[in-house]
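Entry, Tuesday afternoon. Goal for today is a structural model of the target with NAP bound, before we commit to ordering more compound. Inputs were pasted exactly as handed over by J.K., no edits. I checked the ligand SMILES twice against the vendor sheet because last time a stereocentre got dropped in transcription.
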Amino acid sequence: MTEHATQVIAPRYGGPEVLQAVEVEVPQAGPGQVTIAVRAAGVNPTDYKGFSGRMSSDPAALPIRPGYEVAGVVTELGADTELASGGGAVGDEVVAFRIPGGYSSAVTVPAEDVFAKPAGLDFPTAANLLLVGTTAADMLRVVPAAAGETVLVHGASGAVGVVLLQLLRARGVRALGTASESRFDEVRRFGGEPVAYGDGLTARVVALAPAIDAAYDCVGTDEAVDVSLALAPLGRIVTIAAHGRAQRDGFRAIGGRDPESKVYRDGVRAQLIALAGAGDLVVPVARTYPLARAAEALTHLANGHPGGKIALIP
Ligand SMILES: NC(=O)c1ccc[n+]([C@@H]2O[C@H](COP(=O)([O-])OP(=O)(O)OC[C@H]3O[C@@H](n4cnc5c(N)ncnc54)[C@H](OP(=O)(O)O)[C@@H]3O)[C@@H](O)[C@H]2O)c1
């Protein structure tokens, strides 16, 4: 019998107000596929950027189906199909990334993108682990940092930032992290030394550390880029949010669609799930919203200070 699901889509380009909940058919799981009853969908800034029209406004790409990651329960496995983490059966709790259309009550996706969910992770946390986790790991692939070095992380209180802080701490790297003052405790919690962004940032960083070995930009403001260029060697600056400046000023920018990044990020998923399952990597969830209130959730995220990850609950 064909299963139906509620899915949130963007039928046209615009702000979160364009989102609509629609009924969709969930394809049966064929060979190499898994159907998941979604318990939580992860929410990321790239979701609203994708239908904002700023990256592309090609009418042929509509409707946009946002949501790259979910956690849920397997309801069907295709013939001769195993999860990426091995085995798999109806009833298994899983996490899936990178998939399209995650803002849905059910999805059928390639089994190679589906992993067993560690029992210790709740659904909203598991649904928010892999996009930010693989991004932070990829930043360290492009600009590695060694024990004893001092680095600067812009947006250290953000979702990617806190994962990066934890990966740096595990490597014995000293990290200064920019945040608003109300978020300083979050930076400290994950091993960073907080420094307020805004006018005078360069001087505040230099007062804490006269030499910066590398800079990781998880914000993309001109201030973050200018301070990075002033303090770190050009070859050791990487951004995930200031692609225009990176091209103009000659430092690295990465994105999940870059072929090298995609291969690396796919390959590091299992390792990040294991770290989180062991309690060695924490992705703090600030709050959840019902799936039907996705527009409100994205408006909250787009204000730039979500205070942690957001999950949608079907
Ligand atoms: N290229 C990629 O592969 C990739 C992957 C993931 C994310 N991204 C992008 O990376 C960015 C961060 O993502 P996220 O999920 O970490 O976002 P997030 O959780 O919303 O974090 C936003 C961060 O930006 C800080 N911030 C806000 N306004 C600022 C300002 N004017 N100056 C300096 N810092 C400011 C916030 O600090 P306070 O809250 O302390 O104010 C917070 O640390 C987004 O643009 C996202 O689209 C790119």
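Residues 220 and 241 are 4 Å apart (CA to CA).
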